[in-house]
Amino acid sequence: MAKFQVVEKFVSINGEGQSAGALAVFIRLRGCNLACSYCDTRWACTDDAEAVEMTEGEIIDYVKSTGVTRVTLTGGEPLLAKSIDVLLQAFAQCSDLALEIETNGSISIAKYASMEHAPSFTLDYKLAGSGMEQYMDVSNFALLQPKDTVKFVCSSVDELDRVCEIVDQYRISEKCRVLISPVFGSIEPADMVDYLILHQRNDIRLQLQLHKFIWDPNKRGV
Ligand SMILES: C[S@@+](CC[C@H](N)C(=O)[O-])C[C@H]1O[C@@H](n2cnc3c(N)ncnc32)[C@H](O)[C@@H]1O
Ligand SMILES: Nc1nc2[nH]cc(C(=O)O)c2c(=O)[nH]1
Ligand code: SF4
Ligand SMILES: [Mg+2]
Fold first, then answer.
1. 177-219 per-position pLDDT tens digit
2. ipTM strictly over 0.85?
3. In the list 30, 174, 175, 189, which could disulfide-bond 144, CB 3.0-4.6 Å?
4. How far is the CA of 220 from the centre of ligand 2 (A)?
5. What is the 3-state secondary structure (H, E, C) of the chain?
6. pTM above 0.80, yes or no
7. Superfamily covering domain 3-214
């Protein structure tokens, strides 16, 4: 049995990613190796953030108790957790649960992408505005499957040129979904749409963080 530091667990709709709008159970793990300028979950990233220690069995029991079948494992950076492979294996054995992992693009997904019943990944590529672009592990792009998503959170419309450069260089939209999302409140989404129209980017979708429109953007547990 392994132990995981869970800073938050709740049921909501998924506000982001490929299953946006659908019910999901969220498991948020403590700690992160990056410090994105815009991070909306900084409180979960420090090693001393308040957390409840749970085993993989307790996490799965909690998920099953909700009756919700989509699970989002997030953080912080979930792939940093010691023994994360144990938790992913436990989920892989539950054929009635669909696991999505939000990961920050700096950690290799190779070990997990090759698992039987592998989870789906929402792989962030951190752009210059995050201050973290130098940590991106671009070898992950070769491992993408149709069930995965690559996401670019943009601090300015100018960053969309870089998004297109990366999508084209690694042929990402031939492999999986590509999403762009504004840093909440810092760009007009309409300007992002204008960019997609102007550049005829049929392969890139805009996504807004739904939960921040439904609830107070700073509210936790939603
Ligand atoms: C808090 S992170 C946790 C998972 C992982 N560390 C990562 O960065 O992908 C979850 C998602 O929220 C996004 N995010 C964080 N702060 C944001 C903000 N202010 N506006 C829009 N998206 C944000 C991240 O880019 C990431 O896609
Ligand atoms: N409702 C809701 N959906 C989300 N999708 C990804 C989230 C995250 O923080 O990783 C998130 C979140 O914090 N809340
Ligand atoms: S990697 Fe994710 S959790 Fe870590 S600082 Fe960046 S957005 Fe926040
Ligand atoms: Mg969030």
1. 999 999 999 999 999 999 999 999 999 999 999 999 999 999 9
2. yes
3. 175
4. 10
5. CCEEEEEEEEEEECCCCCCCCCEEEEEEECCCCCCCCCCCCHHHCCCCCCCEEEEHHHHHHHHHHHCCCEEEEECCCHHHCCCHHHHHHHHHCCCCCEEEEEECCCCCCHHHHCCCCCCEEEEEECCHHHCCHHHCCHHHHHHCCCCCEEEEEECCCCHHHHHHHHHHHCCHHHCCEEEEEECCCCCCHHHHHHHHHHCCCCCCEECCCCHHHHCCCCCCCC
6. yes
7. Aldolase class I (3.20.20.70)
